[in-house]
TrEMBL record:
Gene Ontology molecular function: ATP binding; ATP hydrolysis activity; DNA binding; helicase activity; TBP-class protein binding
Protein name per Swiss-Prot or TrEMBL: TATA-binding protein-associated factor mot1
GO cellular component, one term: nucleus
Transmembrane portions of the chain: none
The entry's keywords: ATP-binding, DNA-binding, Helicase, Hydrolase, Nucleotide-binding, Nucleus, Repeat
Subcellular location: Nucleus
Domain called Helicase ATP-binding: residue spans: 1348-1521
Stretches the record annotates as Disordered: 194-218, 296-340, 1069-1088
Pfam families, alphabetized: DUF3535, Helicase_C, SNF2-rel_dom
Alphabetical list of CDD domains matching this protein: DEXHc_Mot1, SF2_C_SNF
Amino acid sequence: MTSRLDRLLLLLDTGSSTSVRTTAAKQLAQLAVKSVISDVAIVEDDIKTTRQHVGAVSDSAAWSELMSVVARILPYLHSKSHETRTAVSVALSQIFTLVPLWQPGAQEGVKTPGEAPNLPPPEFPHFSVQELMEKGTLLLASSGKEFTKPTGILASSSEVKKARKEAMGRLGLDFLESVGGADDIDLEKELADDDEMHVDSETAAPKFENGDEDAKMDEDHEPILQPAPLNAEIAVAVPSNGAPAVVEDASNLSARERNRLKRKRKGGNSAFVVATAPPAVSKYSASVTAPPNKVRLVASDDPNSPSSRAVSPKSPIEAAEKAVVDPSKGGAVAPRAEKQSKALEVDPGRWVWDGLVKMLEVDLFSPAWEVRHGAAMALRELLKSQGKYGGMRANVTWEENEITHEKWCNDLAVKFLCVFVLDRFGDFVSDQVVAPVRETVSQTLASLMLHMPRRSALRVHSVLLEMIRQDFSVPNKPANGAQKGKVTEKGHIWEVRHAGLLGIKYEVAVRSDLVTAYVDDAAAAAGQEVLRGVVDAAVLGLGDRDDDVRSVAASCLLPVAEHLVNQLPDELSRVLAVLWSCLSDMKDDLSSSVGTVMELLGNLVAYEKVIDIIADPSQSQPLSVLAPTLFPFVRHTIPNVRLAVVKTLHSFMSVPSLPRDWLNVSFLQLLFQNMIVEERTDIRDATLSAWRLVLDILSSTRGWLQSTVAQPLLLQWYEVMMTPLGTPINVASFYDPALAKLGADPGAERHNVDKNMIAQDLSLIAMETIIAARVAAAISMAYFMAVWPSLDETHEGMFRPILIHYVDSPSMLQKFLAAVVTEEWAREYEVRAKDDIPLLDKSPLAKDLSIKALQFLQNDPPPAYHEMMYTLARLHSECFNLLQAFSHDCRLPITRIPNLGTEIDIMGTREDCFTISTAQAAVGEMFDKLKDSLGRTKKKELAIIKEKRGHVAANIERYIEVKAQYDVRVSAAFAAAFVALKATPDKVSPIVKGIMNGIKSEENIQLQTRSAVAVAAFVEFCVQCQLVQPPEKIVKNLCTFLCQYVEQTPTFAFNRKYTRGVLSFQKPSLPKDKDANGKEEPMSPETGIKARLSRRGASLAFVQLSAKFGDRLLDVVPNMWQSMAGGLLSACASGSPNKMDSTIDQRFGQDVIDSLSVLDAIVPTLHHGLYPKFHELFPLIHLTLRSKFAIIRQCAARCFATVCDVITAAAMRYVIEKVVPFLGDALNLPNRQGATELAYHIVQKLDIKALPYVIFMIVPVLGRMSDSDDDIRSTATNTFASLVKMVPLEAGLPDPPDFSEDLLRRRDEERQFLTQLLDGSKVQQYEIPVKINAELRKYQQEGVNWLAFLAKYQLHGILCDDMGLGKTLQSICILASKHYERAKRYEDTKSPDSTHLPSLIVCPPTLTGHWYYEILKYAENLKPIMYTGNSRERSKLIPKLKKHDVVITSYEVVRNDVSSLQDMNWHFCVLDEGHIIKNAKTKLTKAVKSIRANHRLILSGTPIQNNVLELWSLFDFLMPGFLGTESSFNERFSKPILSNRDGKGKNGEAAALALEALHKQVLPFLLRRLKEDVLHDLPPKIIQDYYCELSDLQKFMYDDFSKSNARTSAEDVVRAPEAGSSGSGKGQQHVFQSLQYLRKLCNHPALVLKNDVRAIKDTFQHAGYKGETKLSDIHHAPKLLALRQLLVDCGIGAASALTGESAKSELLETDAGSTGGAFSQHRVLIFCQMKQMIDIIETDLFKQHMPSVTYMRLDGSTDAKKRHAIVQTFNSDPSIDCLLLTTHVGGLGLTLTGADTVIFVEHDWNPMKDLQAMDRAHRIGQKKVVNVYRLITKGTLEEKIMGLQRFKLNIANSVVTQQNSGLSSMDTDLVLDLFRCTTEEEDAAAAKKEKEASAVGQKNVLKGLEDLPPEDEYQGLDLASFMGSLSAR
């Protein structure tokens, strides 16, 4: 079970959204600081309010607790995920802000440290930029060690010191060793002391920040060695495939590892200890492949055993008191108790954050850029909040502390400066470089400078200037073999200059005091000097050839723009000149610095002095020269630059005193072109804004506008704007500033960013984008008309010919855009009008336009539009070819073919021309006539012609559809124009029809929105004119549109038959459409699209109506309330569900659905002032939730969820108080169904907004998870699964408003319940009311507590404790207790719900007797019965079952007798070894799931064996629906997890997220404890692999098979491309037969040759055997030899084995001295897969060679009734040496603690089965070390199977494990590889090759290249965000 801290950390790392991660971060902070402050203020937004706690910090225990939480958070700073690192920095920021500010002493008050006047200043550390650049090791993106194991946190302060020393040495920063080292007086001595102190514990060497667990080795550094603990452990490096490592180069091994290697190479040593799978990869890293594992043996207890000093360092977590290898743990040994890191703790009296700073300093120099970035972010947050008294100590004078603080600041600053000089990492966002490490470190430095004395800050400033100037020669050195840095002609390193400028940028932003003028002249001069240095640096940077340097140089001056203007006015002209030259020199289209340079220009232009300079020709070039410098950038490649240019030019125009003589026709042309060709909306909007401003300026001066723009230019603009869609734009009239620029370089590198827009290529540019650009141009033309100085003849002369021409145009686009121009002109006129005279009365043009618009609306639409000409021409040729086919193909005379006309007439006015009517006739009557004339001949040809006809008819249909769409578009535009002109029509219906068609049918959302605006304007016009009817009609129509989409507004008539069920959670059937008779048929896709458009349009119209009328809407349109809620008001008037259902059934059914659908759409659009009105509807919607009709309940739930989303506080309070109680209504099913459905929709709709209400809902929903109704159960379990994920985020939120005390009290009780549900350790103690004949261990009592908790709340779960922890006993305890309690309750109350019910236990047949005897043994109050035997025996038992308490049966019996068992009601149903029902499709599983029981419980040590889908089946038994449907579960969890099964998939992140999500969802219903966690007295289990070579006979047979046809055909099946294609089942079966053959051969040739005498003889002959040899000879099966050797080593059968005696020696039996007792010290379990192998061991080995061995056997042939007796006999009789078992029968549920040695002769494909088998001996009651030996035939299929087993176990330690047991899910290469017999040399070569490939393979290199970060990843990494975070404090 995980704690709340674990869950919050998980959310921090894997939260699905930023808001989830941020919420988790804040709650983590509140959790962390609880120990330090009791009154944690919970603030919903950032907790960056004023700090209430300032004072000395004395409680060291509380701080220690805080630091332990911080230590848990820190490793996530190493994450490769930017989101995770950011979330961690938020969490740390909250912690640092919430805790009290540490102060050296309370008496100091709130002093601010400064420069101590009476003490000498501390010396600033020696820092030479030149020296560091020459000698330092560069910090790149990584050190190339990405695939090393990730690390946790350093364990102690001494480790931090070591790590820091190592990091400094690695980077050539040894001179920094003395920096900040006042406390590290004698490092070596301290480290030695530290080692001596920890000699007995498991001290570990540091885990270095780059994650390399082995000894840290760099090119020229020795590994840091550490004394081994006396009780040394042996570390053995083993490759992951399990074969002994063949190491060519032992130089980087420790001495111990080299000795180990030598021993392994000695001959005759055939048994090796091998590692199992590598440990599951830490969640802190992305895709990390684990290095070779370490495997440890238990060291001897001999205190005198020598210990080598050269031990590879291990992590603190890696060492354990007794090291045990257990494959289920993937090779790594889990700790007994995690060691607490002490690295963050500091000595009393010192600054509490000192340890944290030191640890982060180490990470700051990590080779991995993510680690550096994480450390910088954490330091930034720490210094911002807690840096004020950094480095100080308590009990020291204030002045001494000031000096200490200053020294601390200096030391830290120098380290940041080192990172500046050495960091070379750059990331790309879009097409711009970002340096995340340097940028963040500069913010961190700025945070430090907040607390630095002035003199220290000035020293830092001077170093930064030195980095920028670089006035020394620097040899250009390669970055560790990487590419050389960019170097300018002077030889400076651009990254260092870049970093220096970044530092300056942040420095001047936070320390403006450095540049401001002080009281006296000297200080003012100093400030000016600093400022001059900044300006010089910026000017130098602006002249740099590197674009990124120029960009940051410009941003340097942004914070000090005001100081620059006021203090150094003489520098302004120089700065301006540099900025302008910077812009004019940019030849490269990819320059991203343009934006920043322009922003600076725009800022400076706001100051009078700058304006004066620009206006003064003597100081600056005139703006008429400068402004055009910017024109080429208007169409720059980078969108942000294009936006910045327009804004800068806008700012130039906004300053009234600046000259405006540069505003000319070229500029207007540029702006107009920008609107036509720009794809981005924000740039288009900015351009339109600039256009408006320039026209306002031009029109403000008499005659200027008229002289600037003549009619020919206007015509050009209209011509461009009216270019038909899809036709390239004529750019002959375009103004190109780049070419216009004098002296422009024609060969300069330029990219035409507008190529696609100019070509109007509809395959590359969306139609919506083109239309948006044209509409923007039309608005600009309308504005031009509006600002024209007067509405006189010049206005008419200028605009009438153009507009009237286009209004009358036959083109759809031209008509439409002319109407848009008219509408926008009318609107703009209304805004600008100085009097109340309407436009129609002032302008004859407006009058004519309104008449033309009305005419268009009143008349029939035109027959066609010009745009359709091309389509009609194509139709002409298609129709011609169609009819000609009768002549060509059917041999009809050409004279019989009708003439279609040669000319095309789209208007249909001329005779004998081709029109659309001709086309319809051609596929209609003409075609039929020709077809009939053929009679019955030419059927084949006719079929082809008919197909052609269908194609042509479809094209004609599309033509007609397009025409209708054009009609709608033009009508809507004319109607909107007419409305805007405010003309009064004779009839309103044509206008209403025009705009309503636009609402109903327009596909383009922008144009649909324009129609919505027109609707609102028309309603306003009607209100002003007091026309009541049109608005009501419009609103009614809009409500009708909302109801046309059947998915949202179902049909009552069709759905009235459904009364049971929760429709929202059932599979949705296809939406239906009504035919003429009111019956329903499946809705066509076209109808669905149209209905969806109507609903969208109507919603947009309501948005506009709400925007226009606000809270007056219902007064303006009084009938609107009735249109929205009429159906509800009518049907629910009675207030009774039954009466309501009666009226719904008779007449109001569809009305109610319509009302609910309309409210669902309208409520989100309304003004908040109307919300109280909707409170009246809550009881009515609630009533409909209680309807008997399922469809009414569904619509009500949907609608109420939307209302809750909008009116959250009031609606959710109503839901919690009034609706949630109905979840528990046991008597009325519809009430429960409605309430459950509402809960489901609320969770889906509100998402994180539902957080404050989660606790109120979760327990009632939980109660429904065991509802008798299937639908409620499924819906409730799905809803619960969503709610339970939110629980960790709920804690700490403020109480919801207006909730009663009672409700809040109830929430607290339910929260306590949830705590128990989510954390098993918090479950209340359960007192077992009956006597149990066993003393329960602590963890077993906790298990019983948990089971009792589940039973109390009607929940069901899986007890998946490790094998051997007593699941049986815990289950018996709960059964005994609950049966007793039920009987007692019946005795007291005689209530029918407490009558006696038996419980059912279903288990494997081997265990039925075991259960029976265990119940008799432990629980005296239970009366068990075994329901087993043959069918006749069982049928006699059936009547007796109900009289017993517990019925024990097997799975097979349940399958056969399901008809009898499913009719009975059971109290508990317990499935032992419940993973047997993992396959949901088997009859057995279906039978088990049909059992009815109050409580369901699964016991399984391995709930998932082969893949995650198995978990679905288990939960489908426990809580059907909890994990969704099988297919949805497969999509959501199985596929992503299995797609990444080899860890190499691209979907690693998706797999991790799916695994985590599944883990969270099932967590409350799983209880799993591992042996090593709870059994401290259980001896270790040591697993060893014992390798055997193949015998000569086996080798011959193996090779013979490899050459056979069987292998070839098997390979063909494997290589077949479609594994899932038909027939693959047989193919796979064939492959398995082949693999099975090889498996058997590895064990014994007799298993494949059987008793076929001829085959045996032939084989011997071909193998070259001469003379007598028998197949039963054990020399043919080396496994038998190995087994004999192992048994002899165990002291079993030794004498006979050595002497070859055939009879048991009486002497040996009596001579106790020879064997140390009457029987051997060890007893053995021997596991085989096949019964035949047991037979061979028994006959060929035991009887022939080891007759003295006593043994028993247990396999499938053993009578099930006798199995328990065999187990008991073996456990109780120590004289029995061996028990022979098959894994299948003996591997489940038995307790065989009498044995202490387990030998696997054969192995299962499924590692879980082997694990379960070995845990028969390794369980409670075992007193000895358990040795497990696995016999493996070297170089064969078997060894490879073991490799696969290790892969499967790699992830078996999470609750959910996914594996790869099916052939279909295995890689082709893997399967083919199984067939090969390989030698040791081949294995070694393969391993070496793999190692080399992984080191330098191109594939790996490419894999290492990460995707570019998303555009928003670094959006917070800028000056504005940083300064905002400071001001929020």
